[in-house]
């Protein structure tokens, strides 16, 4: 990005600059006809030429788009100005307007050099008309150049600061929108998980119990040939409860997190490990995998995500291992890292200093499903998080 792109002149400043050039040209012409110049007609013609060249600049697209086009236009303008300066010493004050143009339209260093040359030419032209040089003649052009340089530099810094603030505001706005979207998504996911747990703990368990009772009743009725009618109704009721059990399980599956809807818990944990770059995460499985209740899978996945997030954010670990173990009627999930560790006794029972529940939330999630969560850690000795679910496992249909 060029300096010209970084320092646009506001419309008000541009209007003031146009008025300044026009006023100085009119002043030089009027003074010439009042006797301040030997050739007033020539001054008038030269002033018209300078004004015409100056007014042409804003109309040319090349002047606005490139430093080369602006440089060519400025060269023609300064040559026309030199002609006017030869005819009248009053043209020296136009140099003040040219300073702004040079610094605005050209790269900063080139503009500074040309401002110095323009100031020197203005001083020399004024001295040539006076037939002698005095230090006082240099005060006006040099002081004007210094004021313009300081003004443009200050405006450039203000504009750069404004751009930085604009970028920061845009970044903060985008971040706020992302956080709001993440909070909404998290709220939706949390509600879906709550509904899944409610359906699993009420409807699914209720239909399972009804199915078991009807199955037992059907077996007893099967031993009494005279009760074929009631036995048929019992079997029909059992089929209805079984169909509704399948439907309830389908609802629970549909409300599960996206990572678990079309895949297994092992695959979901593997993707979690692969997505984490630091620390390096390894997934291990032990035992013969079997179908778990959806509520268990959801809890295990969420606990693994939360524990790994804590490791990434706080542990400073280089390696972490997730171990999923299947035993008879129970499942264990362990996450061990080689990070800095901590004293578990120092953790708050409720929300942490950053507003998160951390380990307290993981314990609560495990306890809601009859599981247990254990944390082992010490300063400098890494951290191990272990969660266990056990009980009679129904093999749910997928």
SSE sequence, one letter per element: HHHHHHHHHHHEHEEHEE
Name the average pLDDT.
Answer: 80
Described by strand count, sense and barrel closure, the largest sheet is:
5 strands, mixed
Contiguous uncertain segments of 5+ residues: 1-8, 351-357
Termini, distance in Å? 58 Å
Spatial strand arrangement across the major sheet: 1-2-3-5-4
Count of extended strands: 5
Q: Percentage of helical residues? A: 55-70%
Report the total helices: 13
Proportion in β-strands: 5-15%
Q: Can you walk through the features of this model?
A:
The protein is of the alpha+beta class. Mean pLDDT is 80; it is low at 1-8 and 351-357. Among the domains are: 3-133, no CATH class; 260-390, Histidine kinase-like ATPase, C-terminal domain (Heat Shock Protein 90, 2-Layer Sandwich). A hairpin with a 2-residue loop joins strand 2 and strand 3. It has helices at 3-6, 11-36, 40-56, 61-65, 67-87, 95-105, 108-130, 135-222, 228-254, 258-261, 265-275, 294-315, 358-368; strands at 280-286, 319-327, 330-337, 372-377, 383-390. The longest helix has 88 residues, at 135-222. The chain is elongated, with a radius of gyration of 42 Å. It contains 13 helices and five strands.
